[in-house]
Amino acid sequence: MKRIKYLVGILFIFIVSCSESLEDTYSDYSGDGKIRYVGKCSDMSIKAGWCRLQVNWKNSTDAVIDKIKVSWEAEEVLHDTLLPRDATFCDIKNLTDAVYRVDVCAVDVNGKESLAITDYARPYSYEHEAVRSFSRVISKYYYLDDNLVYYIDNWNDSIVEAKICYTNSNSGAKEEFILTKEEASKGLLRLENVNCQKPITIARSGRLDGCSDLINFADYTLTNERIYSSDFKLLVQIKYGLKNENEEQKRIFDHFVDTVKVLEFDYDIASFEDLFYCSKLEKIILGKNRYLSLQNPNKVDISVCANEERSLECLDLLNDVRGVVIERYNEHYFDKTRSYFVEMGNPQLPILNYLASNDIESIQNLTMPEDSEETQELRNLLDNNPSTWWEPSVATSPRTHEIVLTLKQPQVVKGVKIVQRLYRPTSSSQKYYVSDKVVIEVSADNVNWESISYAKENEIGIGSGEVTLIPMVKPVKVKYIKVTLSDKMHGSSLNFNMTLSGIVPYI
After folding, report:
1. HSE-up of 116 (CA within 13 Å, CB side)?
2. DSSP secondary structure letter of residue 491
3. Backbone region of residue 196 per phi and psi (left: phi > 0; alpha: psi in -120 to 50; beta: other values)
4. Mind listing the pLDDT tens digit for each residue in 436-462?
5. Could you give the C-alpha distances from 208 to 133, 138, 154, 436, in angstroms and in order?
6. Domains and CATH numbers, the chain
7. What is the DSSP secondary structure assignment for residue 24, as one 8-state letter?
8. What is the pLDDT of residues 280-339, one digit of tens each?
9. Is 99 exposed, middle or buried (0-12, 13-18, 19+ CB in 10 A)?
């Protein structure tokens, strides 16, 4: 019974309290009497715009409200403004890059303020990371005489307008070219009659998620900076001994690119776009140094270009603008051909003076015992016969093989011929064991070793019976030749091995 009376009492108090006036809701007791509070604003929201914040709220129905006060603070700098009593919106402008605390409160005629409602927001500005990372529209570009060649790779619906601002090479007039979404899907693009010696700028406007304003992004100017692909830099290093690491090397590298007239490509490459940098280029030779046996045709016999369509577009332009011709061996790189392609067939191995096997005192695999059966079979690498080969036993973990040739007498060696084993690509498991990289070093004393080529590691063709010639950068008299190769894995198994038909020095 006591519990029932208690619950009834609580219910009575609740009903009475709900019947109190609005005035009582915002009042309290202190000292001799009531303290009345001004009605509080509610439902505050902030929308970030360009260097501004747009603040919305709802006002109290309290009749004593005379003004609405909006305050904003960042980095201990405080600003505020008074608005009419019925104001529900404030546009705070001319803001810098910062996170602002925004307070909204009601004020009566005596200057008494209600409890404030608070929120935080950051306006958009040039320093905002979302603005800095906005699409530059043109992702890659090249100067091709009086043509601007470019790609649009990252067009999105946030872009409202983008244009190229340039000087016409014929008239000298300032012109604008509007970029479109439709163009972005066309791949390589070309803008003609562009004076590439004068500034070329890209202007953009667009919208960002959460931003109420259209943003005119900062214009940026195209530079003369060259961004070479890793494939192209490696090619120039291996064939011509030019690196592109420090400032002096970059200067020499750029000079080579500016003056080279003929370039050779033999192995897989991502793209031929870097050829736009070669302003004096006259001829491109493809696959000349891949000497294929053609006894067992295989797809690995053909060098490929990862961006085939893109690269063909590049070659088309180079031929159209600069008259560059292409000599191609064995249909390397492209499934398609062009009228300006000169098809050369299969390259012929040059006549070389090979070191006879009886001029080699010994051949040893340093990773294996000298008296093993596998070591005896190493002599097959010296007979210059593609029908014989060396193949060690299968291992359960990868090995590195260091094969050392000791000459009977020091000889001036000009290079080394590497020959792959003949195999049937459709049936033989040996295709998995064919190495695609080799390191070749020479020594006069078996102590001090130096690489025979510009790059320490050389790529070699992996076609059935394919021959790769690796010339000495500078022929020298040597006593020892060391060839280093690594095991390959057989498919998805955990079997490792390698096979090779020939290591033949030529003098």
Report:
1. 11
2. T
3. alpha
4. 999 999 999 999 999 999 988 999 999
5. 11, 19, 15, 48
6. 42-121 (2.60.40.10), 129-221 (2.60.40), 230-345 (no CATH), 357-506 (2.60.120.260)
7. H
8. 999 999 999 999 987 877 777 889 999 899 999 999 999 999 999 999 999 999 998 999
9. exposed
pLDDT in tens, 34-69: 667 899 999 999 999 999 999 999 999 999 999 999
Q: Which residue has the tokens 């005489």?
A: 145
CB 326 within 8 A of CB 336: no
Average pLDDT of span 109-119: 95
Residue 90, C-beta contacts closer than 8 angstroms, at least 6 positions apart: 54, 55, 70, 81, 83, 104
Q: Do 253 and 242 touch, CB atoms closer than 8 A? A: yes
Pair 505, 354: CB distance under 8 Å = yes
Calpha distance 421→466 (Å, rounded)? 8
Rounded Cα–Cα distance for residues 441 and 434 (Å) = 20
Give Dmax (Cα) for the chain: 121
